[in-house]
Write a structure and sequence with these properties.
By secondary structure, this protein is mostly helical. 58% of the residues lie in helices and 4% in strands.
């Protein structure tokens, strides 16, 4: 009985930290980030610093996993994506950029 209780507690101590982690979105080849991936503080807009931080984190994660960095050389600059020039990216601005960027990547893959 004591051994079973100890074993159960050990499993819980191991499993709880894993279960508490947010579910990761599968990042397969060709997957594109979402607005939430960039909006670090969740305020509905992306500052240039949030954009740079999220992009750097994504590049680092992909490099660590040994993944290809396709499309990185064609990646847009924050100021190019901020089409209204207000210093923040809206969901619409980021979605439009990601759509264009994805189309460019698919076109290059077809060559």
């Amino acid at each position: 009985m004591k051994l079973t209780l100890v074993a159960t507690l050990a499993v819980l101590f191991i499993a709880l930290p894993v279960a508490a982690q947010p579910f990761a979105r599968p990042m397969g080849p060709g997957s594109m980030p979402t607005f939430a991936d960039f909006d670090g503080d969740g305020d509905g807009r992306i500052t240039e610093q949030e954009f740079v931080d999220a992009r750097s984190q994504r590049i680092t994660e992909r490099a660590t996993e040994g993944r290809a960095m396709r499309g990185l050389s064609e990646a847009g600059d924050f100021k190019d994506i901020d089409t209204n020039g207000d210093g923040n990216l809206s969901r619409e601005e980021l979605d439009a950029y990601l759509s264009r960027h994805g189309q460019n990547r698919r076109a290059q893959s077809a060559l």
